[in-house]
TrEMBL record:
Keyword DNA-binding: yes
Pfam families given in the database record: AAA_lid_14 (PF25601), HTH_8 (PF02954), Sigma54_activat (PF00158)
Domain Sigma-54 factor interaction: 12-241
Residues that span the membrane, as ranges: none
Organism in which the protein naturally occurs: Gracilimonas halophila
UniProtKB keywords: ATP-binding, DNA-binding, Nucleotide-binding, Transcription, Transcription regulation
Protein name, as recorded: Sigma-54 interaction domain-containing protein
Domain of life of the native organism: Bacteria
Chain segments carrying region Disordered: 259-287
């Protein structure tokens, strides 16, 4: 069976180099009995891969038993895996086979293996090494012949160093490790996979999908997809059902994307360049690894942009709402934050005798106080408001002033309508 037929048959989609390497490795090990550990983020397709390995193996005519170790309470996981005898504990009214017995002759898929309690890890090691185990409440040795496929979204070696996972079990599971790449690392696969999902759901729901704009296509590719294939499938289904017969533009698509984008985001976040070359995995344990550094960097950039947004909102809103005399009455910390902030392309300064859209006038000119003093009161009561408090308040005031007109509100705040829509959703504002 060639790679394309294999992928089509088992739903392992993608033609990127990263995916081709994964498929080749799966096809190499599938027909053997070697233990395989699948490592990858949530939603990358570990369960689909495990099914493909079993279906390609010599054990395909026997059971594939799927066990989510993270979903089984610690108190009963041993009984679930290895079975129990009648009377072994309260409620054990009959003897019961465990998953390893049910999988005899076939394959057992241990998902989220890293969540297995330490006392159970000892018993897993024994069954992996020689196929022997004990039912709970029995001293009789049981045997089973199973092929083990494990999966985790955690760093097992890091868990070993922290004492949360047995080192001997780690080496037993690490015979063959297959790392499934996240969707953001194979962006060329996103559009073809999305189209396949759309075709599938269009047929299922008897719907018509009229396509999407170039900007929407770019957004699909640049979005980080924290939920990976699972999230992409979910978005495709929502678009087919909820945007039936609609042409999808960037704004429509953005409503269904929950996380941050990887490159060219709505917040104009830059993509962090991958530093694969020259990265030494044996660096000091005190240093963050590459992925950790990227995560921290992205968070800092997002924070910087959020602060810039709030400062811009302050400047635009204050200068469109208050006279110079009123502004000088505000707390010094507030004046400093908006001093020399660029408003609508013009640098303004609180020291100037001017307001946005007004002629210069002396300080002693009689000026009518603004009717709406809520913002002034807010700033005086809160010497240094949080970013979220200030941003939410300014948005509310802008919408109130323009009777809910979002276009005018966004212009006054100095942000795009798209950003305003996102902020409304973020703060749960109508």
């Amino acid at each position: 069976m060639d790679r394309e037929v294999f992928q089509e048959q088992f739903g392992l989609l993608g033609t990127s180099e990263a995916m081709r390497q994964v498929i080749d490795k799966i096809m190499q090990v599938a027909k053997t009995d070697i233990t395989v550990t699948l490592q990858g983020e949530s939603g990358v397709g570990k369960d689909v891969t495990a099914r493909a390995i079993h279906a390609m193996s010599e054990r395909s005519n026997n059971n594939l038993v799927i066990v989510n170790c993270g979903a089984i309470p610690e108190g009963i996981i041993e009984s679930e895996l290895f079975g129990h005898e009648k009377g072994a504990f309260t409620g054990a009214e009959t003897s019961r086979e465990g998953y390893f017995e049910k999988a005899n002759g076939g394959t057992i898929f241990l998902d989220e293996i890293g969540d297995t309690p330490k006392n159970v890890q000892v018993k897993l090691l024994r069954v992996l090494e020689n196929g022997e185990f004990f039912r709970v409440g029995s001293s009789k040795v049981q045997t089973t012949d199973v092929r083990v496929v494990a999966a985790t979204n955690q760093d097992l070696w890091k868990m070993v160093k922290e004492g949360a996972f047995r080192e001997d079990l780690y080496y037993r599971l690490d015979t063959v490790q297959i790392k499934l790449p996240p969707l953001r690392d194979r962006s060329e696969d996103i559009i073809p996979i999305f189209r396949k999902f759309v075709e599938e759901y269009s047929a299922r729901y008897d719907s018509v999908f009229k396509g999407f704009s170039d900007e929407a296509r770019e957004l699909l590719i640049s979005y980080r997809w924290p939920g990976n294939i699972r999230e992409l499938r979910n978005v495709a289904e929502q678009l087919v059902v909820l945007e039936k017969s609609q042409f999808i533009d960037k704004e429509k698509l953005q409503k269904y994307l929950k996380g941050r984008q990887h490159e060219g985001s709505a917040d104009n976040l830059p993509m962090v360049a991958s530093k694969k070359q020259g990265y030494n995995s044996s660096d000091s344990d005190d240093e963050f690894d590459r992925k950790d550094r990227e995560l921290v960097y992205r968070a800092l950039v997002e924070l910087r942009n959020d602060i810039a947004d709030v400062k811009k909102m302050f400047a635009n809103f204050l200068y469109s709402s208050f006279t110079t005399k009123n502004l000088k009455a505000l707390p010094a910390s507030v004046r400093d934050e908006v001093d020399k902030t660029e408003v609508s392309g013009v640098n303004v300064n609180l020291g100037d005798h001017a307001t946005l859209g007004m002629q210069s006038m002396p300080d002693d000119t009689d000026i009518e106080e603004p009717e709406d003093t809520e913002l002034s009161d807010f700033l005086k009561d809160n010497e240094i408001p949080s970013i979220e408090e200030a941003e939410k308040f300014l948005i509310q005031q802008a919408l109130k002033r323009f009777d809910g007109n979002r276009r005018k509100a966004s212009e006054t705040l100095g942000v795009s309508e798209r950003t305003l829509y996102r902020k409304l959703d973020q703060y749960g504002l109508d």
